[in-house]
Amino acid sequence: MIRKNHIDLIIGQILARPRTYLALVAGLAFFAFLPALNVEADFDLEGFYPDDAETIVEFQRISDEFGRDDTSIIVAFRHDSLFTNEHLYRIKRLSEDLEMLPYTKEVRSLWNIREFVRSDDGSLSTDKYLSDDDLDKVQTGENATGRILDDIRSRMLNDPFVYGTFLGSDGTATAIYINLDEQENTFSNRRELISRLEDKLESYRQHYDINVTGLPYFRTQYVETLNREILLYVSVASLLIIIILWLLFRTVIGVLLPISIVWVTILFVVAVLVMTGGHFEIMSSTIAPILLCVGVADSIHMLSKYQDLRLDNKSKKRSLEETILVLGSATLLTSITTAIGFMTLMTSDVMPMRRFGLYTALGVLIAFAVTIFVLPSVLQLIKTRMPVEDKSKVFFRKIGSLLSSTHRTARNHYRIVVSITLLVTALFSIGITQLKTNSRVFDDIGESSHLIQQSRFLDEHIAPQFPLEIIIDTGKEDGAYDPDLLRRIEQLHNMLGEYDEISQSISFATLIKRVDQVMRDHQEDTVPDSRQLVAQYDLLLDLTGASGPSRMNDFENRQTRVIARAYDVGSYRINQMRDDLKPRLDALFPESSVTLTGSTILSADLTGNIVSALTWSIGLAFLFISVIMALLFRNAKLVIISLLPNLIPLIITAGFMGFAGIDIRPSTAVIFTIAFGIAVDDSIHYLARFRMETLRGSDLRQAVKNTTIHTGRAIILTSIILLAGFGVLGTSSFESNMLMGLLTCLTILTALLADLLFLPALIYWMNPDITAGQASALNGKQSVPSEFQRAELSQV
Question: How many angstroms separate the CA atoms of 157 and 170, rounded?
């Protein structure tokens, strides 16, 4: 147990060496600057899962076996007269230009795709669909009616490996695929490649509305946008907070000291992030605004307390000692409860949530440590007597008047206030039943953004780019050659075609039927009846060097792959489809092991993880903070009173999301943890001050009034800061950040009303008696707290 002499020693150490501690913080900031400069941002769907997660292990195994589905940048456009010499030759020149880009493995377009043909000797071979000879014939008039190009287009449209990949919209839209070298697929290399790509596309944009998409392109542009957003968050939030601090304190020290403390805190956290191998992503990018708010709130509490003590004509030394004693313990407690709220996110299997919780919790504790050492040290060294200008007293008087009115309402109508609050909360709880968990691959970017619009072009004119893959493991070598299996795969294609969310699907069965048509020169679209014939066709495919077989079967032909293209409809619908497909797949392939995978499945699997993480996070936070409240107040009624105002903001925010149709996803799920931490901080400040007032001998009315007016002032000021900080997120081009900002602001406003109106009304209603046993719990048999104990309990 920490005794008075221990606390005096700590305070004495802080005040005895102000220059030493300031130099230490400055030195650490200097050494943190270099790693912080090297911070990077990235987006990786696989990074949402632990490395040993079953979903990731299976996805990587299949990627190693069949190749990855996320290594292509896609350039797509359309023209009503695409199949003319002018446009086809322009596509050829563009493809050749793109082949000159760095870090590329190959470029595939209409000009280098091939069709199967039967040679004169009866063997299978491949020819390019497009050739210079054919276009020269058209150019010289040998084919004035364009029958050659019409025939080529018709053959391409009937090829399942061309239509929906390289060609779409009845032959008026095309896509060019830039396949990246997997070993060179890094953010810096992609950024250089995309920069050069944009330069090469510039001259072609006068002819076409060119759309660039694909997961590598999206990841890179996502990171570029995220970097700009982070800088914007910190800049705008800092500016708003500086303005608010000036309106509150009207002194240079009252502005520079709090903002400098949070800037140093953010620097330390970013440095730790880099040194531990982390990077910025959609959730961790919001750490800076959160720390800006939390850090400044700590400073406001301590500056306000110091100002009050100086106005009571206490010496600078005594004022600083009491400020550290009173607010140091209070701010430490609120920092711990806030950190606990964020740390509970580490129970999640969603890795961005886990990292967000860890680094934000660390940042909250760093903010406390920097504040407790820097702020008293600076105040001790400066000659200014007051950190607050007299002009700001007008603002504080207005807040005091508002809080007096709030207290009268809570006192005179406490039953009405409590009843209405609980009724409104109950009504919002209905909205919770309408909540659903739903995340999309492109969730973070707003639908109206240029990045998404380019992706939608591919959805509309070619085919969606998100693969939903079905791996059928026959359990025996060459099991994929079984004609009966291939016919059942054909049934699977028809089954997949029943879903509007899937545009097309291909498989080894599709490939074999295509070869059979060519080799037997007939129009019938059927699977061969002979296993030997299927094996022979596969051998012929190997001899042609076609890439199709290696993409469809594994080396032993034991596993075969069905590739479907799905729209980004969200995890909720994908999981519905998966639940519907599973029994049908089991019935269709009873002797085989069937696995669903691909980027679409990775995104959909986040659903259960998010719900589980959210439930555990809130439950653990509620449990830990309940224990802290019980240890702090040692009164059953006060524990209940402390928890109810913290649940109300959560219920109202969740209900609003349900009514507004806002889905739970990684970015919106953490709102509840943030909200709980913020609400608990204010409740702790309020109830600790109420306990102190009661122990001093104040009756219930006077204790509630003093608490509402004095602690309420700090709660309002910190809420203004929080609203400014999170309000900045409401302007984000990332839809998830925008929702996080707006919903957190709603929660802050709700928590403010709950703490300053509902909480005092609830105290009047429940009338807790905390005098019995509380004083003796502080110091054995002593019935009245000592001066030190009263100071230790007081809160601002």
Answer: 7
